[in-house]
Design a protein that fits this description.
The complex is a heterodimer of chains A (388) and B (490).
Chain A lengths: L13 E3 L4 H13 L4 E4 L16 E4 L6 E5 L4 E5 L4 H8 L4 E2 L12 H7 L6 H4 L2 H4 E7 L5 E5 L11 H5 L8 E8 L1 E2 L3 E9 L1 H13 L6 E7 L2 E10 L1 H17 L4 E4 L1 H15 L3 E6 L2 H10 L7 E5 L4 E6 L4 H10 L2 E6 L18 H11 L15
Parallel strand pairs in A: 1-3, 2-3
Antiparallel strand pairs in A: 4-5, 5-9, 6-10, 7-8, 7-9, 11-13, 11-14, 12-13, 12-16, 15-17, 15-18, 16-17
Chain B lengths: L4 H14 L4 E2 L2 H4 L16 E3 L4 H14 L3 E4 L16 E4 L6 E5 L4 E4 L5 H8 L4 E2 L12 H7 L6 H4 L6 E7 L5 E5 L12 H5 L8 E8 L1 E2 L3 E9 L2 H13 L6 E6 H11 L9 E9 L1 H17 L4 E3 L4 H12 L1 H4 L6 E4 L2 E2 L5 H14 L4 E6 L4 E2 L1 E5 L6 H18 L15 H7 L2 H14 L28 H4 L7
Parallel strand pairs in B: 2-4, 3-4
Antiparallel strand pairs in B: 1-2, 5-6, 6-10, 7-11, 8-9, 8-10, 12-14, 12-15, 13-14, 13-18, 16-20, 17-19, 18-20
The chains are: A alpha+beta (388), B alpha+beta (490).
Chain lengths: 388, 490
């Protein structure tokens, strides 16, 4: 018998797994009519994100709604149901040598609906952008059970208000995502990676140098290792461009007085495993700030609990992992950085800690948005920013 | 001369905020503001104000609310869907005096600009440092960033780099209460807490508020760019070439198609030496790191040839490259050389449907005895059919509009959209109801009501039937706590 499913520590009274989108919509309609609270759950990989919600009557799993609805390789778009895993979508794209540029910690378990709701991102964001830059259409079931859609199936479209954007990162508080259309990208013909061992300050300087040189890395990630970082720069594309960029990066490293080495495929994958290991730690946090400021904080940082283990210098984001929660440290980080989001915190340590931090100045508009979509606050109530 | 004492009083009140010169009621000066780039419709606004700061915009909005006037925000007035077409009795708030580039933050790759800044002015300012602002609508030398935000403007190079929404990260917004609110990011931070209000504010066509500052991403200029121009016997071969290039995993920065009529107009208007005896032409940019550019340009040229290109040219220098792009970007205006009037359409179709849709468009024009020129963003299936007509011939304008509308229905039928970058505005509000059902539109209206519950901003635009915020349809069922008397809906 597995552990009961808990949403930021709150165990729902019951769990439903509707067989298809229509059944999911009916379930929500019935719950809304009965004024019962509910929460949407995909692959259950990010259930600790956010604050504990108000008591949840029903958790609705999307995992049975997992079909490809439409795939047009010539148009580089794919429409999928929300319960499909990121890995399964990628398998559907593989025969046409295309990729969904969406990084999640556990692609075999994480669903696309959950990835959208949590605004998941990873190393390829620097090249392909975030989810909002790749999503072109969405189907939703509103908290009142009404089916609605926004955007479309074409990559360029400004007809009507952009509902896909408002659902990205809303943590399921505006309704259920049932389907989404994404722009996909051609797979790289060739790829390569270079590792440079550097201090935080040097790693940042080298990252900035790749921008100055107009290089276009597939990703640029600094993995913390004791006092310094392994800056791993990956390149993808056609062979000529990749070879040229690898050579250029080695040259830049030399100019900065840093040793660099090309990595083989297995070594690169070991870094992916390091990232997954960080995400499995008891406490994880997502840090965000303008790239220069984050670099400055990291360069000045000595050993601290929850130190960033995975840092995206050009994005201005980092993933910190720790064994224990350290509230004064979090409070201090929130003074310095733009966002410090607690992704994972042991239930016992949650008391008095807000997973998000101070709501933004536009919070009044967000509250009105929530009130329009979910006037009775039935849908994942209290889990999101500012108690939304 | 001011027509009524009431108008005189209002004028004086607005003039007290923005200055006498910048509060316009004189009919001859109001004429400029009667329409935008959608020339077929004109409405005289009651008053036009040209504020110079966020504070002035806020004060102006509060005053308009007191007078009960609807507000129509306006950028450079180049929009093609009537987004800034005035509404009877309205106040037009023109942002053309707010033209400062406030801050450039190269290390974080952000800039903060006022809404009246001209799109191209940003890239010009950044060029010496090796940076640029990516979205490049064809009107970029005259259109403003505020208007780009309202319309989610695209452009030729959006194929690779994305649209305005992918490059605007934050804004200062004046709401319908006159409040000044920061939306989205203040600078280079990658994440903001809560709902992505910025994502939905872009492309909201002036219905959610007035943007008075915009925070944008700026990009490093690519190492290299190669431009290729190719001609084809017909749009069929040109369309097949586009498909072949995309299928080969090549992502051009831009790939634009012009048909025979469009080429004729562009040649007459700009002096490019393009051949007139061809059915279609493609203009393509590939950019990026040098090695990739060389590889992809060579591969693309081979594919153009295999697809039946008649002639393939590369510009010999930057001047010739600039001229080629000037030709493409002035295509709309060039139509004046081959027709007294034209009606610009903007629709999107899946890229693979280009050939059948172009045939369908030609048939629709022929049925009404009208010619249709095509110049468009082939890489993302964003069509711009230009329906040519002579407004002096009774009935021709109506026929052109009819053809334009039928073209949108063809786009919907082929699984596309009624607008890729020009917006819904006044022009296409009726067609939005053919693309989306009532539930979809109601959901979009939720967003509007969250920002502007009073329906002050651009109230007659976008939605096919005017929607209020008070009337939520459906039978209201009271919550258990209400029935028990422990709560009410106050």
């Amino acid at each position: 018998m597995s552990e009961p499913l808990a949403i930021a520590g709150v165990v729902p009274r019951t769990v439903l797994t509707p067989p298809d989108t229509d059944a999911l919509a009916s379930a929500i309609r019935e719950l809304a009519a009965a004024h019962k609270t509910f929460a949407l759950v995909g692959g259950a990989t990010q259930l600790e994100l956010g604050n504990p919600p108000a008591p949840i009557d029903t958790a609705i799993r999307t995992t049975a709604c997992a079909r490809v609805l439409d795939y047009a390789p010539e148009d580089q778009t794919i429409t999928v149901e929300a319960g499909m895993t990121i890995a399964a979508i990628q398998r559907a794209l593989d025969p046409h040598r295309q990729v969904l540029a969406l990084d999640v910690a556990d692609p075999e378990a994480a669903t696309v609906g959950g990835a959208i709701a949590t605004n998941a991102f990873g190393r390829r964001r620097a090249r392909y952008g975030a989810i909002k830059d790749n999503i072109v259409g969405i189907g939703v079931v509103r908290p009142d059970g009404t089916l609605a859609r926004g955007g479309g199936k074409v990559v360029k479209n400004v007809a009507g208000f952009d509902l896909p954007k408002i659902m990205v990162g809303a943590l399921g508080t505006l309704g259920a995502i049932t389907s989404a259309t994404f722009r996909v990208h051609p797979a790289d013909e060739c790829s390569a990676a270079v590792c440079v061992r550097a201090s935080a300050a040097d790693a940042y300087a080298l990252a900035q140098a790749t921008v100055d040189a107009s290089l276009v890395p597939d990703s640029l990630v600094a993995y913390a290792d004791d006092g310094s970082y392994d800056l791993v720069v990956r390149f993808g594309g056609f062979a000529r461009g990749v070879e040229e960029q690898v050579a250029a990066l080695h040259a830049l490293a030399r100019e900065h007085g840093l040793a660099s080495e090309s990595l083989d495929g297995d070594t690169v994958q070991a870094y992916d495993e390091r990232e997954r290991a960080v995400r499995r730690m008891p406490v994880t946090m997502r840090l965000g700030a303008p790239p220069v400021r984050l670099a400055g904080v990291l360069a000045g940082a000595t050993e601290f609990s929850g130190r960033p283990r995975v840092w995206y210098p050009l994005i201005g984001a980092a993933l910190a992992g720790a064994e224990h929660i350290d509230p004064p440290f979090i409070a201090a980080l929130r003074e310095t950085l733009s966002t410090v989001v607690l992704e994972r915190v042991p239930l016992a340590a949650r008391a008095g800690l807000d997973a998000w931090g101070t709501p933004p100045p536009s919070f009044a508009i967000m509250e009105r948005l929530k009130d329009r979509f979910d006037p009775e606050r039935l849908c994942n109530p209290g889990r999101f920013v500012g108690g939304l | 001369m001011i027509a009524t004492p009431e108008l005189g009083e209002r004028h004086a009140a607005f003039a007290a905020i923005v200055g006498e010169r910048n509060a316009i009621v004189d009919p001859s000066r109001l004429r400029t503001y009667e329409c935008d780039g959608l020339l077929g419709f004109r409405v005289r606004p009651e008053i036009v104000v040209l504020p110079a700061s966020t504070e002035e915009v806020s004060a102006v909005v509060k005053l308009a609310r007191r007078f009960g006037m609807p507000i129509v925000p306006r950028g450079a007035g180049t929009g093609l869907s009537g987004g800034s077409l005035p509404i009877e009795g309205c106040l037009v708030v023109g942002l053309s005096r707010m033209t400062e580039i406030l801050e450039i933050d190269l290390p974080n790759r952000r800039a903060r600009v006022q809404p009246g800044v001209i799109n191209l002015a940003i890239s010009r300012r950044l060029a010496p440092d090796g940076y640029y602002y990516a979205p490049d609508p064809s009107s970029q030398s005259v259109c403003s960033i505020g208007g780009n935000v309202a319309e989610n403007s695209g452009g030729a190079h959006c194929l690779k780099y994305g649209f305005t929404v992918n490059h605007v990260v934050g804004a200062t917004l004046v709401t319908s209460d006159g409040e000044v609110v920061t939306i989205g990011a203040e600078g280079g931070e990658p994440e903001t807490l809560g709902y992505d209000l910025m994502g939905v504010l872009v492309g909201s066509e002036g219905m959610l508020g007035i943007v008075t500052e915009v925070v944008i991403k700026i990009l490093r200029l690519p190492q290299a760019t190669r431009t290729v121009f190719a001609t084809f016997p017909s749009t069929d071969e040109a369309g097949a070439a586009v498909s072949a290039i995309i299928a080969a995993g090549i992502v051009p920065a831009a790939i634009e198609m012009m048909d025979q009529l469009a080429i004729e107009a562009i040649v007459a208007s700009t002096g490019v030496d393009w051949p007139l005896d061809v059915g279609a032409a493609l203009l393509m940019d590939v950019d990026g790191v040098r090695g990739d550019v060389e590889h992809t340009a060579d591969a693309a040229i081979a594919l153009l040839r295999e697809s039946g290109a008649l002639e393939i040219r590369a510009p010999k220098d930057d001047a010739e490259r600039a001229l080629m792009w000037k030709g493409r970007k002035s295509a709309f205006a060039a139509m004046g050389r081959i027709s007294p009037n034209y009606y610009v359409q903007d629709g999107v179709i899946p890229r693979k449907e280009i050939a059948p849709v172009l045939r369908e468009i030609a048939r629709l024009g022929a049925e009404q005895g009208l010619r249709v020129a095509n110049v468009f963003h082939a890489g993302d299936g964003n069509l711009h059919p230009l329906v040519l007509y002579d407004g002096r011939i009774p009935g021709e304008e109506a026929k052109a509009e009819h053809v334009g509308g039928e073209i949108l229905r063809v786009c919907i039928k082929f699984g596309g959209s009624i607008t890729g970058e020009h917006g819904v505005g006044h022009d296409k509000a009726l067609y939005l109801g053919e693309l989306f059902n009532d539930d979809d539109l109601e959901t979009m209206n939720f967003v509007r009501c969250a920002f502007d519950g009073a329906g002050v901003f651009n109230p007659t635009k976008v939605f096919p039937t005017p929607r209020l915020c008070g009337d939520r349809p459906g039978v209201y069922t009271p919550h258990a706590t209400e029935l028990a008397g422990t709560a009410d809906r106050g």
